[in-house]
Amino acid sequence: MQLRHLRYFVSIVDAGSFTRAAATINVAQPALSQQIAELEARLGVTLLHRSVRGISPTQVGKIFYREAVFVLRRMDQLRDIVRSTQGEPEGSVGLGMSPALAVSLAGPLVRACKAALPKVTLRLITGDVLRIRSLIESHALDIGTVFEDTLTLGLVRKPLFRQRLYLIRPDNGENDAPSVSLVELKALPLVLPARPHTIRNALDRVFAAAGVTPNCVAEVDTCDCAFALVKAGIGFAIIPKGNVSVVPGCEAMRTVVIDPPIYLTACLISSGDMPLTSAAEAVSALVAAQVEKHFLLK
Q1: How many Cβ atoms from other residues are within 10 Å of residue 240's Cβ?
Q2: For 223-248, what is the mean pLDDT?
Q3: Does the domain spanning 3-78 belong to CATH 1.10.8.50?
């Protein structure tokens, strides 16, 4: 088995067809098909399911894809690993970040990375915790900064800080109460994250323990969408940020403390079966420093 077999196979799965993969990697389609047939013959298994809708990996193929991505990524990192041992960290680092954290952290982190780690290229991807976990488990990302309150086998989890949840509402200029109780939340139209979601899981647990059924008028998958619905007067949202006036487009909104408090834990997560490169370690340290500066010292 050659590395080209792994690269060809991963390209086909990513593209969803032999034709698109052949065009992407500049290999003739008949030769590509022959290489995959040779790979399947050597392994003694069927890796790809062919249908009129395209190509998809079999169950065995999914496992092979995950391991092939791991091998190829490690091979691509080898040059950077060797060079980093001779001086400052260098290479590409994939960082996943929840949208709620990215609003405050992405800009300062990228600036700090450019200044402190000029030879490191940061690939920043935002998404919910399930997507970030999946990308780290498949080794498509090196590290992730997410709100997470459950342990996940196979991942290394380093807590960074606890973040309180707040209700956000339009700022109508009136002297609204500085806090809101769970019972009072029950009477409000709420825009909540769609399940499964870390914030929604935390809210469901708290509401259930208090015997409260929230009035959910809409479900969303991003903070931006929640902000838009609040701005449109659809309802109120619950987010892990105490001041939204600094968020573009949210100047006319204000946050209200929820009492008793509801907390989420912001964590730095990484793969438990693939050691971080020196570049990824350096970015992890920068993330922790920026979190302390922008969240813990305020």
Answers
A1: 21
A2: 83
A3: no
